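User: I've been trying to design a sequence by hand for this structure and keep getting stuck. Would you show me what you'd pick, starting by listing the structure so we're on the same page?

Assistant: Good idea, let's start from the same input. This is the structure you sent:
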């Protein structure tokens, strides 16, 4: 067979597979629009008001909370003068926004229409990640050198305090098991909390990989997805036994991770410059499906499965302004 013909065939087939791989990537996460953010420095966690399709962005380095309209793709308000805002949650029943300040430990409630401050809860220090349990109307806030404060969303009062051996990073609640799973990277462990007693009842310890920051949860199979930074790994655990199910390469410097129940996809945003996407259909072990290139430092994100959207925060870098990238996700 003619060598030139073989070479041409190989090159054409390489182009075919590359083009189809690109189509696959675009079908998984299709960039629809971006929202410019007039902020500098690190951007931390995000949350959404589904009814109004408004997203809240904790601009930690800018000491502000940015409020952006997803439909018009523009920032509609900015709450300034905060102290290293890290966690944020929207409370639909009271139509309030809660912002956790890492600098002071203060957690502020704001009216979502007027943006007036309605209440303050002071925590020891380093108020960080926030989870809202809408059915129980409880807010969980990680803080300090080792604690999760439990807040009654209606009274805005602290009703419990979960003591931990180190500062908590991402945590997830499995209501069927009445357990809270929490990353404690300073002690190289995942902690398991009994929600009925508000106490730590078990620990999953490992020396390597380390620096476990993001976490996601599959409540159907009771699987815990944990992201490690050193080295960058996604490890999946069975929530009852702690048994390791899967161990895969992952985006570096990751800070947010989500499991989409509709598609069984897992999305991980990493500051190393890309999004890792996996699929775990029907409780089966997956491989990495694809990576989507992003800006370095873009490690915080938000999955909005009700709108089929994945939102990525890109901090200002190398003369480029900060942006909020809005991707359309697949449900196939």
């Amino acid at each position: 067979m003619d060598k030139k013909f073989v070479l041409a065939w190989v090159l054409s087939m390489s182009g075919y597979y590359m083009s189809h791989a690109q189509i696959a990537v675009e079908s998984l996460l299709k960039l629809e629009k971006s929202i410019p953010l007039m902020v500098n420095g690190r951007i931390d966690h995000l949350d959404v008001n589904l009814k109004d399709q408004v997203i809240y962005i904790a601009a930690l380095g800018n000491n502000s909370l940015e409020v952006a309209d997803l439909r018009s793709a523009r920032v509609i308000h900015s709450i300034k003068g905060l102290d290293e805002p890290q966690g944020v949650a929207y409370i639909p029943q009271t139509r309030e926004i809660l912002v956790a300040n890492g600098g002071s430990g203060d957690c502020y409630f704001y009216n979502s229409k007027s943006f007036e401050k309605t209440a303050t809860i002071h925590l020891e220090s380093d108020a960080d990640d926030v989870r809202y349990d809408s059915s129980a109307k409880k807010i969980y806030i990680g803080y300090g050198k080792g604690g999760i404060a439990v807040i009654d969303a209606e009274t805005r009062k602290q009703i419990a305090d979960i003591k931990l051996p180190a500062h908590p990073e991402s945590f997830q609640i499995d209501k069927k098991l009445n357990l809270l799973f929490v990353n404690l990277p300073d002690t190289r462990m995942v902690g398991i909390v009994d929600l009925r007693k508000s106490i730590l009842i078990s620990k999953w310890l490992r020396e390597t990989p380390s620096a476990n920051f993001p976490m996601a949860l599959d409540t159907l199979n009771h699987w815990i997805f944990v992201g490690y930074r050193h080295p960058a790994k996604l490890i999946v655990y069975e929530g009852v036994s702690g048994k390791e199910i899967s161990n895969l390469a992952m985006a570096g410097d990751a800070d947010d991770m989500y499991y989409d129940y509709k598609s069984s996809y897992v999305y991980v945003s990493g500051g190393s410059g890309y999004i890792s996407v996996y699929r775990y259909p029907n409780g089966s072990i997956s491989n990495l499906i694809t990576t989507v290139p992003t800006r370095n430092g873009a490690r915080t994100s938000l999955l909005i499965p009700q709108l089929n959207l994945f939102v990525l925060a890109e901090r200002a870098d190398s003369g480029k302004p900060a942006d909020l990238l809005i991707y359309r996700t697949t449900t196939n």
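That's my pick for every position. To get oriented when you compare it with your attempt: The first strand starts at residue 29 and ends at 37. The chain is about 10% helix and 55% strand.
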